[in-house]
Amino acid sequence: MEHLMAHVLVIDGHPDSASLTAQLATSYVAGAGDHGVPLVLRDLDFDLSLHNGYRSSQDLEPDLVRAQELLEWADHVAVFAPLWWGSVPALLKGFFDRTLERGWAFRYKENGMPEGLLAGRTGRLVVTSDSPRWYLPLVGDSTVKQVKGRTMEFCGIKPTKLTRYADVRGRSEAQIAEWIRGAADLGAADAARPGVVRPVRELTATG
Length: 207
Fold this sequence. Notes:
Layout: E1 2-3, E2 8-12, H1 20-32, E3 36-40, H2 62-73, E4 76-82, H3 90-99, E5 106-108, E6 114-116, E7 121-128, H4 135-138, H5 142-153, E8 157-165, H6 173-191, E9 195-196
Parallel strand pairs: 2-3, 2-4, 4-7, 7-8
Antiparallel strand pairs: 1-9, 5-6
Helix pairs in contact: 1-6
């Protein structure tokens, strides 16, 4: 059964609240209105390290339990991240390592092939970079491949669209302001598609 507007989860993966990435995420959430929920990773309390890899389980902190509940609730997942050293900040990578648990976000079938357990959700990856747009494919575009392909789509969140804000250092204040305003329109558009009613756990209160 469908509901009229998509539930949009917006994951802000930048450690700095004053960053362009954070401002874009905030604007996108505002555009999604009552259908958008922010998950600001720098405000969460959790251990970034998966200490024993996948050899044993590691209990989730309450903030990560809440994150899993929100991922179950979402019809659309938007991840905002800067490009750092061909990857993402440790904050976002640690969140993925800890939250996207094997058996919950993905599993391996008997034939050894992976299966994404968050299927039925769409995604958007929003990446900021000082590097120009044309340069990134020449050096492998590793951040996009890692987050869009090997994380979000691996877990079944697809199709995942890509939005770039590149050559940030070369942009004027007016151009940056236009980007931030435009992110609200993007959030409104992503929230406007029909969502799906799913049987999920009741969301816990935060505070």
